Amino acid sequence: MRKALCLIFFLVFASSSWGAQNTPAVPELPRLSLDNFSPGIQEQIGEAYSYVRSHPGDAAASGRLGMVLQTYGLLQEAAVCYRRAGQLEPNVLQWAYYLGVVEADQGKCDGAASTLRLALHIDPDYLPAKLRLANCLLASAEWDTSGRLYADIVEQHPDNADAYYGLGRVRAARRDLAGAAVAYRKATELFPEFGAARYALALTYRALGKADQAGEQLHLYEKNKVGVPPAGDPLLAEVHALNRSATYQVQYGAELEKQGKLEESAAAHEKALEIDPQLVQAHINLIELYGRLGQFEKAEEHYRTAIRLNPDSAESFYNYGVLLLSTDKFQLAEDPFRKTIEINPYYSGAHNNLGYLLERRSSFSEAEAEYRKAIENRPADRQAHFNLGRILVNQKKYLEGIQELEKTIEPEDENSPRYVYALGAAFARSGDRQNALRYIRQARDGAAARGQSALLTSIERDLRALEAPGTPQ
Prior knowledge:
Among the domains are: 1-90, Serine Threonine Protein Phosphatase 5, Tetratricopeptide repeat (Alpha Horseshoe); 246-338, Tetratricopeptide repeat domain (Serine Threonine Protein Phosphatase 5, Tetratricopeptide repeat); 345-408, Serine Threonine Protein Phosphatase 5, Tetratricopeptide repeat, CATH 1.25.40; 410-473. 71% of the residues lie in helices and 0% in strands. The protein is built from 26 helices and no strands. The longest helix is centred in the C-terminal third of the chain and has 17 residues, at 433-449.
């Protein structure tokens, strides 16, 4: 079996036809060269291939082989399998959609557009198929059709950053630069780490003569060039789940972490290290994961391994600093954050956490400087705005402090009541009772709605004092 896996799989049966007389013949199985794959992956592909050979009329078997081939980048061979599956089972969304995806990934946009239209005929509501079709039409310079499709998507899904980015590209191609800027800006608001949208917005601002805004967007782009919104594509996720490579296990573990499944995420990372013990990113991520799980010895073990494998990884030192903070080892935490900044001066989180540590030991001017650096490198960092606002209010710089705290109250989430409460308290300290009452009442309502009982108790105590007769106006 193993010897056969290292060879080329050849066609072993002649093509035959299923269904009506005029139906095209089912494509023959592709030839596969697997020498560049690991033995485990060779075995996985070989098993799927052998199953199709023994079940030539099984559409799911051909489709499954296509999925396995696609997950390892064998796109041309995967396309053959999807065509087989589609011939055998023409009304199944997966086979049409997967074929459209691999055709688009090969740059065959004309064929991909036709195939994706077929997928949408089967299921008109599958959003990823709509986005991919719009992207193909855009690549083919079909501005009107792609523009209408992007506009339709943002109308139905106003939180879709990818669609706004596509709409911006259409408008830019039509030289509607002002409209393009609006769309790109919306994409970055929905997903601040969207690197391509940041870059496109910077170029658009430059073309509009807005040099300062262009520079700001380029600065943000430099900090995260490759960030993209989550795919939100359950069908493609099934393809990715078949990938047994170490790199994919790390990616899968990262997705589990975003879902709050910390133990499952740690298991996926450990599986990656079983495949490749030298994979630095897996060790780096496990520092954070085991820290959050309270398994500090394991976290420290992965930190030591990570810095041995790559002593210049800023993220290793940052995660270790956070680990020390979580165990109240404040003095020890300062050095890893400084090391992080030494390697990567743009690391917003390290500046913010170093500022917190400096503030704890009453180095207020130095703390303020670190908070400002954190905001400079990540203007949307709510925690840094909160920390800077709080330190300014404590210095009785009320106007400037309130301006910083006002930047924390959106977007609406679990932290909003705390931030709104701080803003109300700042107004109270500045003598603005009307705004103080407004925001503290808003914070009370938010905390009550979220069941944040400890915060609610503090808010109600301050609110009673502020509402008491004789309180200065």
